[in-house]
């Protein structure tokens, strides 16, 4: 219930301006977001790399409604990738891209987003790193997987996220478990109808384990994106060579566990940066009531 309210608020312009104007939101946002500027993102990346963790960087933004903003996003990624290479960080960090940030929702958006994603992939290739496509709500899944197929023709290392809460995902895992395929498996963070997604958390968890098995038994490179100790234990028990998969967690979440896992496995941190943090922040609040309680307390006077 609370989760649905917060996820609905994530798409509301009124709530957005209220939350963004509240100065006390800032400390909590800073827990989850590396900073507004690329310099801050690079500093966080360097610190994580020095600590033995890998990084995937997300230039925050989604659902852009004009071509100019999509273009700015592409340029931001191109600059980011160039600077990762300049700082010697391209071996430690890649980019995560939301296709709706590069034009997917515009008229003719599939073509625009694909062309823009291609430019980002070309910049990643020049820098010597990779790109993973984030997955947004279920209305975009087919288009995003279509873009993935097209991108992989020129950039075979392009990865994508699959969301275990969707009923279709086991089949998508089977189709994407082939050689060279990089799949980031997460539970899923959007408000979805029961017609397409499992409504119960226990069903989502069972789906996650089934999907994980398919990916771990396949020939691709599974990226196990979860903070859930049970899912982490299942992945570790599936017995894959440690070099052939990795764990991933979000910046600001379960920091001690990230450090612990990095000692024995490849561990990658998803690091968002930029000033368009609202949607990302609200999804983090929706995931964890403790985050919301902390946020609400910060709004109280005195
Ligand atoms: P869940 O939220 O069910 O939590 C399970 C358990 O994990 C908790 O009971 C607790 O034990 C532990 N835990 C979770 N959060 C904790 C915290 N803050 N502190 C301490 N313990 C905690 N989603 C999406 O729809 N599209 C996408 O592209 C992505 N991309 C993505 C990348 C990466 C790298 C990650 C890690 C996640 C995503 N997600 C995502 C988000 C994902 O779908 C999901 O919403 C969150 O990861 C939360 O799900 P968990 O698997 O962590 O389990």
Structure description:
This is proline dehydrogenase. Its cofactor is FAD. FAD binds at residues 135, 163, 187-189, 201, 226-227. Pfam families: Pro_dh (PF01619). The protein is α/β, with parallel strands linked by helices. It has a single domain, classed as Alpha-Beta Barrel (TIM Barrel). Helices cover 52% and strands 14% of the residues. The chain contains 13 helices and eight strands. It has helices at 2-10, 13-21, 25-32, 38-50, 67-86, 109-127, 141-154, 169-175, 201-217, 229-237, 255-264, 278-287, 289-299; strands spanning 54-59, 93-97, 131-133, 159-163, 182-186, 221-225, 246-250, 267-273. It has an eight-stranded parallel β-barrel, surrounded by eight helices. Helix 8 links the parallel strand 4 (159-163) and strand 5. The longest helix is centred in the N-terminal third of the chain and has 20 residues, at 67-86. The protein starts with a helix and ends with a helix. The mean pLDDT is 94. Bound molecules: dihydroflavine-adenine dinucleotide.
Condensed summary:
By secondary structure, the chain is an alpha/beta fold. 52% of the residues lie in helices and 14% in strands. Strand 2, helix 6 and strand 3 form a beta-alpha-beta unit.
Largest sheet: 8 strands, parallel, barrel
Radius of gyration (Å): 18 Å
Low-pLDDT sequence parts: none
Q: In CATH, what is the class?
A: Alpha Beta
Give the count of structural domains: 1
Computed structural class:
alpha/beta
How widely separated are the two ends? 29 Å
Order of helices and strands: HHHHEHEHEHEHEHEHEHEHH
Strand residue content: 5-15%
Strands, count: 8
User: Architecture in CATH?
Assistant: Alpha-Beta Barrel
Ligand identities: dihydroflavine-adenine dinucleotide
Query: How is the CATH topology named?
Result: TIM Barrel
The general outline is globular
The pLDDT mean sits at 94
Total count of helical runs of at least 4 residues = 13
Proportion in helices = 40-55%
- What spatial order of strands do you see in the largest sheet? 1-2-3-4-5-6-7-8
